[in-house]
Amino acid sequence: MTTIYIGVMTGTSMDGVDFVAASFDPLQIHATLTMPFDPDLRDELMALTLPSDNEIDRMGKADVALASMIGNAINQLIAENNLDKSQIKAIGSHGQTIRHRPEHGFTLQIGDPNIITEITQIPVISDFRRRDMAAGGQGAPLVPAFHQALFQHPTIHRVILNLGGIANVSLLPAGNPEGVYGFDTGPANILMDAWCHRYTGQPYDENGNWAAYGQPIRSLLDRLQAHDFFSKEPPKSTGREDFNLEWLDEQISDWRNDIEYNELEDTPENIQATLMKLTTRAIKKAIYRSPLDTGEVYVCGGGAYNSHLLEQLRWRLRKHNWSVQTSSALGLSPTWVEATAFAWLAMRFDHQLSANLPAVTGASGYRILGTITAV
Ligand SMILES: Nc1ncnc2c1ncn2[C@@H]1O[C@H](COP(=O)(O)OP(=O)(O)O)[C@@H](O)[C@H]1O
Ligand SMILES: [Mg+2]
């Protein structure tokens, strides 16, 4: 009988919660679901990513609301797809990150696993990041081990690029599991979504069409790239604490006093194009500074559907003949890669196998990640 694990992921974009029922060796996807947030819950989760009043009570309520939503959605996933519950060994639930402070050794994901177990009557593995942090790591990114297990190639260098709210890369040198590394390169959709929403009312810039009208603004780009995160050496990870609309507004207002400021350039679509270039340049730098000379880039996460961004990336990586495709070319839709990674992480915990890569997170060694809430 095939053992199924359910992965649950909600990333920094906060566009919704993704669910995947998967089994491994070989990978098989049995069912998928994306559940959008109730708008009030989304606003509250978003607000909780930055310091504000009465955070503990508010966090407690959001913890319960999110967990109930996740538990009920899992029951729906099982019912709608006629999954055999006796085959489902565990749920791997990432939870919503509301604070990530590797510099202080803490990271916080909410969505109470006790409630999820109570609703589903299935064991939940959660709290995947803190053991790595306790061992001195960033607690992020955790997906490179999964990318390596599934996508490393014996003779071709590969890069898996996840474009969620944040962009992260996994570098998979051909045939060399020990050589794998990866890190967050900076913001991807966080800033582009927020800017697009403000000016167009749309939650995101479909296919990058709006950015495509604009031209990146050199002097603003330089200013944004001066953020400390870009000059840090890996291991490094980031989130909404570093990159958010308030930060962007400050940068823009400083830029407007810059001697290089040119009013004619100051249009919303030029700024959107600048944010896109901020994303693609950091990715290019990560790849060109790596020991990998050429190979294949596979893009996953919702940003994989941003065709203009992918075009830009192809153009930026043209020099060394890197190919750029989405993860669909590897047989897994960009939408489901991250949630599948959390099903995989649940499987690793279930087998009591380590799941962090010390070279990626900076932890002092391999660790088994997660804690279990038993039925
Ligand atoms: N057709 C599209 N065109 C451009 N961007 C898209 C498209 N579809 C999804 N996205 C982007 O992907 C984001 C969601 O990506 P996702 O991988 O779920 O991120 P996260 O892991 O942070 O939740 C959306 O917020 C949006 O910015
Ligand atoms: Mg998402």
UniProtKB/TrEMBL annotation:
Pathway: Amino-sugar metabolism; 1,6-anhydro-N-acetylmuramate degradation; Cell wall biogenesis; peptidoglycan recycling. CDD domains: ASKHA_NBD_ANMK (cd24050). It catalyses: 1,6-anhydro-N-acetyl-beta-muramate + ATP + H2O = N-acetyl-D-muramate 6-phosphate + ADP + H(+). One of its GO terms (molecular function) is ATP binding. Pfam families: AnmK. The keyword Transmembrane helix does not apply. Keywords: ATP-binding, Carbohydrate metabolism, Kinase, Nucleotide-binding, Transferase. GO terms for biological process: 1,6-anhydro-N-acetyl-beta-muramic acid catabolic process; amino sugar metabolic process; peptidoglycan turnover. It is an enzyme of class 2 (transferase). Its EC number is 2.7.1.170. ATP binds at residues 11-18. Belongs to the anhydro-N-acetylmuramic acid kinase family. Catalyzes the specific phosphorylation of 1,6-anhydro-N-acetylmuramic acid (anhMurNAc) with the simultaneous cleavage of the 1,6-anhydro ring, generating MurNAc-6-P. Is required for the utilization of anhMurNAc either imported from the medium or derived from its own cell wall murein, and thus plays a role in cell wall recycling. This is Anhydro-N-acetylmuramic acid kinase. It comes from Acinetobacter defluvii. The gene is anmK.
